[in-house]
Amino acid sequence: MGSAVLIEAIHAIRDFSVAKEKEAVPVRTSDAFGNLVFNDEVQQARLPKPVYHALRRTMTHGEPLDPSAADAVAKAMKEWAVEHGATHYTHWFQPLTGITAEKHDSFLQLTNEGKAVAEFSGKELIKGEPDASSFPSGGMRSTFEARGYTAWDPTSPPWLLYSGGAVTLVIPTAFVSWTGEALDKKTPLLRSMEALSKQAIRVLRLFGSTAERVVTTCGSEQEYFLIDGYFYLSRPDLINAGRTLFGARPPKGQELEDQYFGAIPERVMAFMSEVESELYKVGVPVKTRHNEVAPSQYEIAPIFENANVSTDHQMMTMETMRRTAPKYGLACLLHEKPFAGVNGSGKHVNWSISDDEGHNLLSPGANPHDNMQFLVFCTAVVRAVNKWQGLLRASIASAGNDHRLGANEAPPAIISVFLGDMLTDIFEQIEKGLAKSTKHGGELDTGVMVLPKLPRDAGDRNRTSPFAFTGNKFEFRAVSANQSIAMPNIALNVAVTESLDFMATELEKATKAGKSIEKAVAELLPKVIKENKRIIFNGNNYSMEWEKEAARRGLLNLRNTVDALPQLVAKDVIAAFEKYKILNEREVRARYDVMLEQYIKTVNVEGQLMVLMANRYILPAAFAYQKQVAESVAAVKSAGGRSIEGKKVLDRITKLTDTLKQRSDKLARALEHESNGSAEKHAKHFRDGVITAMAALRETGDDLELMIPHETWPLATYREMLFIK
Ligand code: ADP
Ligand code: MG
Predict the structure, then answer these.
(1) Which among 331, 334, 335, 265 has a CA at the least distance from the CA of 295?
(2) Distance from residue 488's CA to the centre of ligand 2 (Å)
(3) What pTM was computed for the model?
């Protein structure tokens, strides 16, 4: 990188340290937690009792809120917001693009006397009408019926956004078309949680539980990179694609592993501290921070919550990180693979199910009876992952994640379940039916009743598994850093809902026929385990042997987005979405269309950027150096000498320069491809034609980087971006 930018960056880092010594780092106190949230405490204090109770019922039981109560809630919300300096409100929603959208409206209204007053009615709280025609809808709305509505989600609390000196009341909403079809990610998530609850309750009933509802819980660990803002702004690829499209490996990579859990640099610490305090105030329970494996890579994780709230909070976390980084002269990279050859970033979605009496249903209990229930739920999840592996794989498919999955640093594209030795052993025992005939206390116990007591935290960990049981929850580790966690949550919920339905149906049949629940379970589990155990794998998922073994087991190995996405519209997947009323066929297909289109768009943008960078950044530098060497060789010659090595350098730079131009032209031609009505064929062309042309061009660009003098090279290098902090 030319020295000017480097010097700027170094100055910024130094100036920062100097400034920070004088200034105290923001303090995070527990009383600040949620003080910008219209939470239960505020509701209780500000709402008339009957309204408060009506709202609670809406929140916990999904009962509709009548218009007069809605008016009262809106009034209290507005007063609270205005007291905090809010002038606007926004219906915040999650369109299919993967980011969030908001349209701000002022509270101001004119009275008949022409005076301005702050107003906010129940109607405005409950329903909004953003001009939504340009959000992707996968063909669910044609332009003439472009209207979409945002509908208040009372189960996720509103909060105040402080940004750019303005205060805005943010209302989490669902986004639906005028026909009621879901145009967003929240609606199906809520529907899927509802569906799972129904089936889980059926299972719980068989064990004598009195719980009325079940919620899925979620906590997601977010990995990200932070690099200096000057470097970021000097790289068109980072700005426009979120990842580097050129960049030679640095002499020092992550091989020393001296970064993982190492000391956090001061400027990064200041950034984290502010992000945490901002998130704290808006009620996001962030808990852990640490360095990650790659240089300049970090992680932030919250305490788990109801999956719907957790999904909203996850979006807020990503937004807050992006927004806060520039204040510290940093850029926050959430891309799955910002740097080739360096670990990418994932998001581990920790997922469990909990009943309304506070029991975690995936927590092995203290007594065998609880264990039996636990084993039914756990087996249901294993079955779900096996049966619906295609859907789960599709739910995490994106152009960005393609660089990560299977790259020897992230779980492979093969979905499997890690259970740990202890649980696997128990599963094997059950499958063989060994537990059945064991004598216990002089009596013959039936089936799983006699299973060994399970420890609460089955300690062992496997960092290579895409889907791991970690003691009292499953961790979906193949999710990517950049994506909303809604889709993986929805996919999991659909899969587990179907599986619980199956288990409940079988168990109900058996108990109705007069069998005890113990006997029913003892008969069902071995069968289900036998049929689904191929999905269980506790070994090293990164190894070649696993790929072969997985193939023998008949597991899917869908290496890229184009291969994985059709799973989303497989017949049985659509049928399951429809059966449990999570999405209808049109809604599922719309998601497929949007995901495929995003793949094409992403690769297209990257390809265009590479052509631009090759022609306008790298090629001019290559020509400059070529000329410099040529002049040097000529000068030696005219002085009567012979520059043997100089001539070799000239030949090599000439060859690389020509190759760069040829490859960039080839990529440009590949990008001219048109869809001609088939998005699938178009996507395949991008995967096979464009991405390979990109890889070839990159190779030459990176070779040139290693030749061209430091002052002449126009892009910040990996060495600079990753290690100067
Ligand atoms: P690690 O995976 O690094 O060992 P933890 O065990 O602390 O980390 O948990 C990681 C994440 O899992 C945290 O966000 C935590 O809140 C979340 N988590 C813990 N229990 C549950 C649960 N029952 N449901 C969903 N997420 C959970
Ligand atoms: Mg984890």
Answers:
(1) 265
(2) 16
(3) 0.92
